[in-house]
Give the backbone structure.
Amino acid sequence: MTAQHDSTHVPVLIVGAGPVGVTAALLLARRGVRTVILERHHDVYPLPRAVATDDEVRRILQAAGVQEEFAAIARPARGLRLLDARHRVMAEFPRTAQGAHGFPQTSMFDQPELERILRRALARAPECDLRGGVEVVAVEQTDDGPVRVTYRDDTGEHLVRADAVLGCDGANSLTRDAIGAVWEDLRFKEQWTVVDVRTSLPVRCWEGVDQICDPRQPATFMRVGDDRYRWEFRLENGPEPDDERLRELIAPWVDRTRPADFEVLRQARYTFRARVADRWRLGRVFLLGDAAHLTPPFIGQGLCAGLRDAYNLTWKLARVLQQGADERLLDTYESERKPHARHVIRLAVAMGWAMTGGQDSAAAIRRGVLSTVLRTPGLGPAAARDFSPALAAGPLVHRRTHGAGRRLVGRHCPQPWVTAHGHRTRLDDLLGSSFAIVTVPPPSPTLQAIANALGARTLHTTGLGDDGRLITWLREGRADAVILRPDRVVMDVIPSGGRDFTATAAWAPLLHSARTPLPSRRTTPASPLRSPAP
């Protein structure tokens, strides 16, 4: 094999062409950033893995430009139920058909179909170059130059230099090893058997997810498509179930005593783990998805967490590479995403405890606590919906000392359908992919100057055909205007009835560009921003 000493240079190199890596490439492409993606396989993995997503992640797919195609393969789900050993309902966490992000709160899908949609979009993007059938053998972060990535294909070894590298290469990530990151164990490890089935038999289901809370035989069941179903069973010991044992396990849902079409698409044993990498970044090398965190699948957030990583990082990276933003902006990726990933993993582990009762000396105590939670009106459902809590105060989340507007900062802006210039569209499609300012009264000179410096679209809600949802959201949050980040998180607010503000929050220097400086001196607005009288 001949080593290739010549090299190419790209703005961003992505290791791994799974859903996280390809989504990251599409998000960067929509900001004009070129990427090379290196993937060891030639095609998508053909067997189903992830099967559920939430409305926030569907909003990310919208930002990546594949929402309409995804909608054609997605199936809204009613929610989650906890059942006892006799399949009696202990608790139900319903999910609505229209969440705050503008999509069903839970959708079921087939991961290979999603990956094919993403690959087709990738092929349409001239900014993206996918190289399949290659093996990445080294990722080296130099002190003062581009990241060096060496990969091997049938013709030999090749070197690519990149301004940034995204490690989307899974649980056994070479990129994670390259930056010296190690796993932090969050103390959950169980062996489960996953069975994916296609059948025309009548199956007893409620169009949602069932979690069987039986320490002796915990299980998960869900309908994925018109004739597609998944079962997951904890089978710690012994061989994989044969056909007779499988018939017994699925008997509460489907009767297989009659000859009929029943195709097992996949039967595989997995070890469910809860882990977080101790670092997610070294210089310009970043970890995303399973390379950075592993979660048990009990609340369907494994793939979702990885797509959130991509959405959080890509706009920041594009701003640094293209607009000269401060390098410290990239520090906020880990500081924002790592606590959220840990939160979701702990929710998943808690659900695992509810199902299995745990296996250590504290199991009885946990079962008692969880039983109390499930009996508390509203508390259990609230926990099940809390997949994306508000970001903590930080450089890009300006929490003020007073209460006005405080409840909005760090949370996502809702996405209603809106009508502008006679055209009905979703809010994000109207605002575009950069910063945005949503305001009730007309924007003041200072606010407009900040919008110009950020390259933000200013949306004046008066007369906007959105059924008043945005105005109501702002009023309930006691804000006249909000500054939205490209990922639609509220970065800052102007409180109702308050004076205009100076762009001296921590986010201002991070986003600063010498070509378009942010206003730094307090000015008196032409007319104070105030909410109109009700």
Q: What stands out?
A: The CA atoms of residues 347 and 383 lie 8 Å apart. Confidence is low (pLDDT under 50) at residues 359-366, 376-384, 521-534. Residues 331-356 form the longest helix (26 residues). DSSP finds 14 helices and 25 strands in the chain.
